Amino acid sequence: MTDTDLEIIVFVLLAVAIGVYVCVSSSIKRKKAAENAIKKAWGKRVVYKGTDESFEYISHYAKGNPSESMIDDITWNDLGMDEVFKCINNTNSSVGQEYLYKMLREPVADAEKLHELDRLADEFTANEKERITIQKIFMNMGKSRKIAVTDYIGYIMDIEQGSNIVHYLAWVFLIASILVTVLVTPVLGIWLCIAAIAFSIITYYKYKAAVDRYFICVNHIVKLLMGAKKITALNIDFLGEYNDKLKNISEELSDITKRSWLLETGNVDGSIAEILLDYLRMLTHVDLIKFNNLIKLFNDKEDYIYELIDTLG
Q1: CA separation for the pair 75, 97 (Å, rounded)
Q2: What number of other Cβ atoms are within 10 A of residue 264's Cβ?
């Protein structure tokens, strides 16, 4: 090995080390900033930053299956309840804000339910550590800004499972180009690698665009299930009843969570692992393959999914 080769290796290792340090440092700062934002926002009036379009999605959960107690549009608008909702929408997830809107739109007159709501509010106020941990879990569940997830649950039950032929072809093309580079001729192999990467990226976005809304919905349900498992793992005493419900739902939908690894998570905290996985998904289409395989697992699970949304909400 020449001195020049050694210098190149050292330079590459140094660049990688600097890149890792920057990513880790940024990730830690983002997590700390998120926790500070949660603490600062607690009990404060909210400044709504969404668009009219995103606000429309929030109402779909309540309007999709209206109860007899739902406030009609005229009364709701006369009371200016959209503005009231925007002022108190201090939620960190789609499931939270959609359920909050539903609570406002369908007032509860049952004394027992109101006392339970007060009990939960008091418990979360008194237990700051547990509250912040729960809020961070909901923040990782995230907000689906493009669609109302509940709009597509019914469609997912009926969607046909797609073919994975093109996705596996992307694997074959990429592996073959690497083998040519290593075993035959590097020059031809590099050009084949470039072509394989281009093929993978182009077909990835083409096929993902075709199922984008369904993909978002499936992905979001998976994140809700993962969040539910994290909440039950905390074993918080004052959430006993809800822990039992979430455990039961998680068991019924366990096949979905078991087979959902490598689905897109949204990379809320900007971790290095997720950044690398994003590139892996693009090159191998592994998340689209997982999506096609997951679809059939949603059959006859609609009631459990709605119960999951209600309980988390």
Answers
A1: 21
A2: 19
CB 246 within 8 A of CB 231: yes
Largest interatomic CA distance in the chain: 81
DSSP assignment of 168-235 equals: HHHHHHHHHHHHIIIII-HHHHHHHHHHHHHHHHHHHHHHHHHTHHHHHHHHHHHHHHHHHHHHHHH-
Nearest to 144 by CA among 207, 222, 84: 222
> Which amino acid is it at 246?
L
| Beta-carbon contacts of residue 275 (< 8 Å; ≥ 6 apart) | 23, 267
Q: What tens-digit pLDDT sequence spans the chain (313 residues)?
A: 566 656 666 676 777 777 777 766 776 777 787 778 888 888 888 877 766 667 788 888 888 777 888 999 999 999 999 999 988 888 889 899 999 999 999 988 889 999 999 999 999 999 999 999 999 999 988 887 777 878 778 778 777 778 889 999 998 998 999 888 888 888 888 888 899 999 999 999 998 888 888 888 888 888 999 999 999 999 999 999 999 999 999 999 988 888 777 676 555 455 666 777 888 888 889 888 888 888 888 878 888 999 999 999 9
**Is residue 309 within 8 Å of 150, Cβ to Cβ?**
yes
Q: Which two tokens stand for residue 233?
A: 């793992």
Separation of alpha carbons 225 and 273, rounded Å: 21
Contact status, residue 175 vs residue 152, Cβ threshold 8 Å: no
